[in-house]
Amino acid sequence: MNASPEASIVRVSARTGAILFVFAFVFTALMGATYYATREPIAASEEKEKLKLINEVLPPQDYDNRLLADQVEIAPAAELGVASSRVFRARKNGAPAALVVEAAAPDGYSGRIGLILAIDASGRVSGVRVTQHKETPGLGDYIDPAKDKNKASPWIRQFDGKGLAEVPAAQWKVKKDGGRFDQRAGATISARAVTRAVGRALLFVNAHRDVLFAAPQGARLDPSNSNPESKP
Amino acid sequence: MSSPHYRDVAWNGVWKQNTGLVQILGLCPILAVSTNMVNGVSLGLATVLVMALSSFAVAALRNFIPHEIRIPVFILIIAALTTMVELAMNAWLHSLHLVLGIFIPLIVTNCIVLARVEAFAAKHGPLVAAFDGAMMGIGLVGVLAILGTARELLGAGTLFGGIDLVVPGAQALQVLPADYPGFLVAILPPGAFILLGCLIAARNWIDARAAERARLTHSARRQAA
């Protein structure tokens, strides 16, 4: 073969391109195979993780339905501080038992603090947990009970059992702001953000409780007009 | 090229060319995840796995990779293997995966992986290349373990915090008294920089002392002769 230089350039490029293509194809196929092999274990462990978190805010014996399946979505609600919140509806013997809500405090010391909280049928907080935060380690991170040095009574547990009957809406603040909840010295901002977010979420859930329980499974609710519209 | 001795490869990876202390590559994970020992060692082990696998794959395929496109092909191989390790960790070590999070995919961008593949695996057989990758990774694990232990001990007064993510039911050890107030700087990134600097200095000091001793014995032997 006595090809001209141009032809040999084309040939080398085509060959190199083809080799690159083969490598890309083979390794993408490998990744795809791994994805399929791990898809189910990943989904299962994500579900388990989620249930573990929910079990911390709501004792499993308080409900008997499949909690993760019985959910509705809430369109942006300023009260919850999240773009879209999922609400899991716990029922016992068919009767409403509690609502598990995702919420967030936008005003933590270093940004958003993600929360999950359960509110029982009597309108009291059953439990609150921080799902995500960037508060200073060793200072503001006591809002997460895993990091709280006081293991006997972690800070986040002081909301347990409190409802609007025990603590009026205006008192859902830290003591430093004239409210009813403790803060720890040196890190008020994290406590303030969480306390106010819990108060807002509690007000919201109590105001919309019946709508939230009555909506069909998987519905998307818009609290501003509180008409459940089914997902397309 | 003649195959290098396994002992030299191991010594090179763990001490002479240590990723964290000599090549100073892969600082991103070193600083970010070494806040406690379990996180550091876990990410280190994931890196060992990726390095061994990608070195093996590149060495096995090295005769099929045209020189001009070797870098894209290397990156492709490393990225694919990292993704597979990440998916596997997500499936079977889920809570650990949540903690390490973004740093597992970032193994791809850890230049030490590409550096070893380019400098070693592309020129040697698959077995010795995999061994080299693993040893380089183990050198990194060592640094992460020391750094993580020191930061956890200074910062929180505990050891093996977060071990329950790897071994369910295991408990962290409270080494210092429970009312130890903690030393915040050790947990924050500046503490990682300072401690890493101390480690590098210590390694250089040990090397300098060994060199000095070697020089002395050498001259003593020459005098005796």
Could you give a quick summary of the protein structure above?
Chain A has 232 residues and is of the alpha+beta class. Helices cover 34% and strands 20% of the residues of chain A. Chain A has helices at 5-57, 188-214, and strands at 71-74, 85-92, 95-108, 111-120, 125-132, 220-221.
Biggest sheet of chain A, in brief? 6 strands, mixed
Number of strands of chain B: 2
- The share of residues in extended strands of chain B comes to under 5%
User: Biggest interface and which pair forms it?
Assistant: A-B, 24 and 29 residues
> For the CA atoms, what is the radius of gyration of chain A?
25 Å
Task: Calculate Rg of chain B over CA atoms.
Answer: 20 Å
* Number of E-type strands of chain A: 6
Lateral strand order in the biggest sheet of chain B: 1-2
Query: What is the CA–CA distance across the termini of chain A?
Result: 63 Å
Assembly status? heterodimer
Q: What's the story with the biggest beta sheet of chain B? A: 2 strands, antiparallel
Arrangement of strands in the largest sheet of chain A = 5-4-3-2-1-6
- Percentage of residues in helical conformation of chain B: 55-70%
Low-confidence stretches of chain B: none
Head-to-tail CA distance between termini of chain B? 37 Å
| Range of strand content of chain A | 15-25%
Low-confidence stretches of chain A: 226-232
- Overall outline of chain A: elongated
Shape of chain B: flat
Order of helices and strands of chain B: HHHHHHHEEHH
* Total helical segments of chain B: 9
